[in-house]
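User: Assemble these into one structure.

Assistant: Restating your components, then the assembled model:
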Amino acid sequence: MASLIGSYSLFFGLGCSLLVVFFSLKDLKNLNNLDNKILSLTFLQFLLVVLSFFGLIISFVNSDFSNLTVFNHSHTTKPLFYKISGTWGNHEGSLLLWLLVLTLFIFLFLIRSKKEPKKYRILTILFQQIIIIGFFIFLIKTSNPFDYIYPVPKEGLGLNPILQDPALAFHPPILYLGYVGTSIIFSSVLAASVSNYITKEWAKHIKQWVIISWIFLSLGILLGSIWAYYELGWGGFWFWDPVENISLMPWLALTTLLHCILVLEKKSILTSWVIILSIATFTLSMSGTFLVRSGILNSVHTFANDPERGLFILIFLFTLIFLSLFVFFFFHKTDKKNTTSFFLLSKETSILVNNWFMMYFLAVVLIGTIYPIFLDVISSQKISVGPPFYHKLIIPFLIPFLLMMAIGPKLNWIKSELQNKFYLASFFVISLFLSFMIIRMLEISILINTVLFASAFYLFFITLRDFFIKGFKNLAQNIAHFGFSLLILSILFNNFLSTEIITNLKVGETYQSNKLTINFEKIEKKKMQNFEAIIGKFNIKNESDYIEILKPELRIYNQPNIVTSEADIKTNLFSDKFMTMNLVQNQEYFNIRYQKKPFMIWIWFSVLIISFGGLFSLLKKRYES
Amino acid sequence: MDYLVYLKKDMRVKILLPIFVIFFLVIFLIFYKGLNHTNIYTPKIISNENIPLFKTIEFQSDNEITSKEVFSGNDYYLLNIWASWCIPCRDEHNFLMKLKKNEKIEIIGLNYKDKEKNAKKFLNELGDPYKKILSDSDGTISIEWGAYGVPESFLIHKNKVIKKIIGPLNDSSFKEIERLVK
């Protein structure tokens, strides 16, 4: 029943789209107020998609296995929480979520843009409806979440156990709010180009949408990263895996866009940047969907390999790209009088310089992700691009980037002199000295690391000082930049100070090194609702005889039959102790991996600070108006 | 990107637009080909044919070895194509370990497009069912055998393939192998 309602809602929702397009085109010639029918229909469409989404959730909760999606991805013994999160833990359901966010955002946009020119609003609706119609057809034709299966099976196939995790239940919706949120920026920028409205006022109005998408995208990436850290058992937080890169690329483009919008808001320049970046952000999000859903890349996000689906997204994606090329080349007019007035020492120049750095980082990630696919297709060679590639190409350029982040905000708009040169220079000397001392203690290669640490410390100190001196002025920006310096510092310390022990132990045995001993005390077995757990108990004694107990776990899921390894992590302010164990086949030995990872929690925390910077600027705006 | 505006508008349209269009068309074509890429090579199904001849490196000893040396002396062989990066290979590994106990059959592993370090780690973790492990670092030997992908297993009797199992071994294919070997 719920499936039936959901299924019909989808068709009616598509019908709404067609009506909205019809009325919008009719209304385009009319110069008066926006036709109220459009607003009502957009709201109705949103309600229908909500209804459809709830229909699917109810089918999941009731374990209605006559629904093919539920049959493929659920099981009666699954806890209720994962039955619900299973709704978007699969291809069909997650596309329905896409559609939900798409329709939600256009509705919110209509409510919040009442002061904007009418032609621009109608064009935004039209462009957004093109995307919405594309996704409706895609959903109904190739991945309908309400397909029937007959005879009705008694039991479902179950959800992939590594997806049964709280962080991962929230990761897709939050990431999608960011991903799909960029669609509204895309539609809006095309509409503004066509109606010749890329102005300061437009920048002021679209800025909040950029910041909202940016916050959600940052948090979504953070959740995915935390999940990978404790669930995949590799003990790292970023693996330069293609799927991670795909979420990072729109983030880089969106961050750059955010800075360009700030410039545009003050001074009518960088319009081409703004248009191209808005288009790039959304098309990069779409390409991400294409790459992981078509099976070209293999990962936990590859739900099903179906060439028909891949082909549809591919054609749709390139239709949007060509549409935006057309708009950009034929409609975009730039105001020439403003473009030449760049002074070397000004805030906009420093933003422009860092934009180019961001574009460089984006290009590195893009090439590292896409090039192996191209090579495979063209010459059938398989190469894998790993962390060394990214580290070598990105790290050296972080140094000027960080310095620019510290100094740039000190400059004024349009034309400026560097004031307080003395303290800027003295902070740098202090940072350099501090890093030099740290590097000497760590016994790693001196030159590049000293400068790298120094530039991160420099940003750290400068932003820290500004909290006290500037107070509320530019606080949002300062919070975000401070968070970034903290992120880089935590990553660096984490990277250089991490230690690892890998060994095979059986129950009762003890591993000894000069720094610590690991004693494998016992194993316990526990029967849970949908898995059986084998829990090891380890006593770890460090140099100062302090004993810590870690209990890593192996879970043997019954539906489907998969063994996963759950790390046990003891977190404190300064370091994480991380332990996993794995079965060694046909032996009584377990493979033990023990890691000490300093400042792990600070990596997560600093991303939260960065996102909070965005949130703060939104709240401040609300408060001021 | 603002330098775009220094060009006159018709210049932009005449020069830059075609460049962009061609650029994106090329990307489109490559992705399009990529979608079908897994189907580019379709080998014919072999059965009751002499096994292909090849020469490769043996894993443990790093010596060169020929197919004749590998498949002589025993009655039955199971050639198992596997890789450490292949998830289904983990599923079927249990069956291989069980089959190892059957003395009538020798299991030969063909390590497909893999790194030696990862492969060894895989076997350390899950156990080593193989009598010999041969390296197929570029995947060409598997193509000679007509493999569709990893994992895949060939049951060999007197230099002929008598059974080919596509995908991971399961209960029924495991029982069939035991029946055929008897």
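Confidence is low (pLDDT under 50) at residues 38-48 of chain B.
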